[in-house]
Design goal:
The structure is a homodimer.
Chain A: H1 5-15, H2 22-34, H3 37-53, E1 55-56, E2 63-64, H4 70-73, E3 81-85, H5 88-96, E4 103-106, H6 124-132, E5 138-141, H7 147-160, E6 166-169, H8 185-193
Parallel strand pairs in A: 3-4, 3-5, 5-6
Antiparallel strand pairs in A: 1-2
Helix pairs in contact in A: 1-2
Chain lengths: 198, 198
C-alpha cells in the first residue's frame, strides 16, 4: 500500500497526460489535494465544460463554442484571404502577430503516410467544399517547415491551383534576432531561396 | 480572441498547476479535447473523487480514504517504532524500501521561519498527543537533509527526549540537499540502517 485508492487513481489519470511522468503526476496530485476544494473543482469542471461545450466550427474547423467560430463570424475579416494551418493552436500563433486579417482553415493534422495519415484523415474535403462557393483569392499555407508540413503544402498546392486560386506559403528563413553563424544549413538554404529584392 | 471561452478557461485552470507554464497548459488542453469524452471525464472525476474521499488519518495524519489509514490499521506493524516525515509522499518513499515495519507520523511541512511556518503550523501537537498513550520506544526522524529538515529534526529531538523516548535520525548517507522523495531505495535503506541517536 503506497497510496490510498482515490489518490492512486488520480495519479494514474494524471500520468496519462502528455509530458507527465510518475513523479510529476504525484506532485500534481498532492498539489490538488492541498488546494481548497473549490479550486480543484474548477479544474475538474473546466475539463468537463470544455468537452461538452466545444465543437469544430462548421466553416473553418477550428475549436469553437458555437456552430460558427468567432473568427468566421467577424465581418471585418478579409474574405479574399484564407490561411491553412495544421492545428487550432497555430491560429493562436497567427493571431498573436496582429497583422493577418483573413480567415483560417484547420486541417487537424499533416500528411504522414508512415503514421497512416492521408488526405482523407485531414479536413481537406471541407476545405474544397468551402472554396466552391467563396470569394477566396489567395490561400496562404502555414504548415510547419517539416517533412510532413512540406508534403502537405505540396499536396494542397497541386490540388488548389487548378481551381484558379493563388496559393502561397509562409517564408522559411532566418528567425528574427538569430545569428547566421548558428543557423542550420537547411534554414540558411531556405533563407537563400526565399530571398527578396530590397 | 485567441481561444474559445471554455478552452481559455481550461488553459487558465491547467496553468495554475505547479510546473505547468502557458505552453504546457495549451498542450494539455488540446490533448484533453482530443481524447474520448469518457477519458477526460475520468480525469475530472478522479480529481473530484480524491477531494471528496480523502482525509487525514486521525492517528498519523497521512492522506487516507478512511478515518484511520491502512498503515495504522495494520496489526503487523511494530508499535514501538514511529517514523516522522514531512509529507505524505515521504511515506511512499519509505514503504518502497520494504524494510521499515513501524508506523508513521506526517508533519505536513517543515519548520521555516522565513515562510512563517512554526511548530503550530505543523502536526506536532498531534504527535505529542499520540505519544502520551502509546508504546512507542523509538522515534525515527526522517526529514530531508536540508536546512529546514535539520531545524525541524533538532526541534523535535529537544521536544521529545524529555518524554523518555529514544530519538534517532536517518543517516546522512543521503546526498545533502537532496529530497527523500527522489532518493533511490538502496540509499534510503542504508540511511535507515545507519541511523544514530541524537
Amino acid at each position: 500500500m503506497l497510496f490510498a485508492r482515490p489518490l492512486a487513481e488520480l495519479i494514474a489519470e494524471l500520468e496519462k497526460l502528455p509530458g507527465v511522468g510518475p513523479k510529476s503526476a504525484q506532485r500534481l496530485a498532492y498539489h490538488l489535494l492541498r488546494v481548497p476544494d473549490h479550486e480543484a473543482a474548477r479544474l475538474a469542471d473546466s475539463i468537463q465544460h470544455a468537452k461538452q461545450k466545444l465543437r469544430f466550427c462548421s466553416a473553418c474547423q477550428n475549436i469553437s463554442e458555437h456552430e460558427v467560430c468567432e473568427v468566421c463570424r467577424d465581418t471585418r475579416r478579409d474574405l479574399a484571404l484564407l490561411c491553412v494551418v495544421a492545428e487550432p493552436k497555430d491560429i493562436a500563433a497567427m493571431e498573436r502577430i496582429h497583422e493577418y486579417r483573413g480567415r483560417y482553415h484547420v486541417l487537424h493534422g499533416l500528411l504522414s503516410p508512415m503514421d497512416g495519415v492521408g488526405p482523407e484523415q485531414l479536413r481537406v474535403k471541407e476545405l474544397l467544399n468551402r472554396l466552391a462557393e467563396s470569394e477566396v483569392q489567395e490561400i496562404i499555407i502555414a504548415t510547419n517547415p517539416t517533412i510532413e508540413g512540406d508534403a502537405t503544402a505540396l499536396y494542397l498546392a497541386k490540388l488548389l491551383k487548378p481551381i484558379g486560386v493563388k496559393v502561397t506559403r509562409l517564408a522559411h528563413g532566418m528567425p528574427v534576432g538569430g545569428e547566421l553563424d548558428y543557423a542550420d544549413s537547411a534554414t540558411l538554404l531556405s533563407a537563400l531561396e526565399y530571398r527578396r529584392e530590397m
